[in-house]
Amino acid sequence: MIIAIDVGNTNIVLGCLDSEHTYFTARLSTDVKKTSDEYALMIRNLFHLHGRDRHGVEGAIISSVVPALSVPLQEAVRLVTGKVALIVSSGLKTGLNIRMDNPATLGADLVVDAVAALAEYPKPIFIFDMGTATTMSVIDEKGGYIGGMIMPGPVVSLNALANNASQLAHVDLDTPEKMIGQNTKDCMRSGAVYGHAAMIDGVIDRAEEELGLHATVVATGGVAPVIVAQCRHKIILDDMLMLKGLLILYHKNAKPVK
Questions:
Q1: What pLDDT, on a 0 to 100 scale, did the predictor assign at position 257?
Q2: Which of 37, 109, 172, 174 is catalytic?
Q3: What is its subcellular localisation (predicted)?
């Protein structure tokens, strides 16, 4: 089994898995102020909590959109398991044909999502990863990563309203009973949830029109379940997409154990 770690701007998702089983997953708050020792303690406690032997870990891999945490988490994994974690970067073998202006600038999270989706779903594929940002990745019918979009996520949108409009307060991302809100908080929630869902539906329509083909649509990320539930397009919700992609990349790049 391996440790797979996905570092996002808001949360860190950690999974302990192999090709047959996912032994546990956990979600931690992303905090650049935490030291490697603090993260090591958290990781060790997760193994204890879930009754898994940390000494049975054969390796690890980290994908991070927060560069400042890559090395501390790599050191934390070493302290817990004695293994040096791979870090997803342009130097890793991915098998992904990235057809963008500068392939090296493609985010690690988008690379991992694409690797997993290509292994599991029919092409072409649209991948929506919904977290702090909502990203869209487009894989064409030949399996090439041809580009995508980056949009503010629904929680970011809510926070921006509260921070910039003096009469609007901070609210949680909950789905109101009706799209047409009847109080300020429900109006904000409706805009974030139904508005984001309508945006996703519209983006799918326009992307399929530009591509000239119907696509398999996959969604992942922390807020994806809330948004996908209100979308009108058929969207596959895959909350394990990132961890599955990290497992694939680990096997592509790990040195054989002698």
A1: 57
A2: 109
A3: Cytoplasm
